[in-house]
Design a protein that fits this description.
single chain; mainly alpha; rod-shaped
């Protein structure tokens, strides 16, 4: 009977060791997965930063584009008025050449820079 008790105890000890090894294996697997996750996140951070910089540049470029388009529209309107509106053409020419009629008072406003 002593041999049988000893054998059962040895089997239980082996089962306990087996469970401990399995738990250790799972722990190592979890740590390895976390390490891989951190590596993936660490490699993505420079790309994320670069993406944010490019988005800022794109925003600035779009703002400049809107400014240029607004300026172009202003010049198109002015050009059309010069071609089609004789009164505007006269005012523009007199302003540019500093002509005025006798008795006329001309006020000029220069944009503040």
């Amino acid at each position: 009977m002593a041999k049988r008790t000893l054998a059962i105890e040895n089997v239980r000890r082996l089962e306990v060791r087996t469970r401990m090894i399995q738990r250790a294996g799972r722990g190592v697997f979890v740590v390895a997965c976390m390490a891989v996750g951190f590596v993936v996140v660490a490699t993505a951070m420079p790309q994320k930063r670069k993406l944010m910089e490019l988005e800022v540049k794109l925003g600035k470029a779009k703002a400049r584009e809107q400014d240029v388009l607004a300026e172009r529209e202003h010049y198109d309107i002015e050009h059309r008025a010069l071609r089609e509106d004789p009164a505007f053409l006269e005012v523009h020419a007199r302003d540019r050449l500093n002509y005025y009629r006798a008795g006329e008072r001309v006020l000029k406003f220069h944009p503040a820079e």
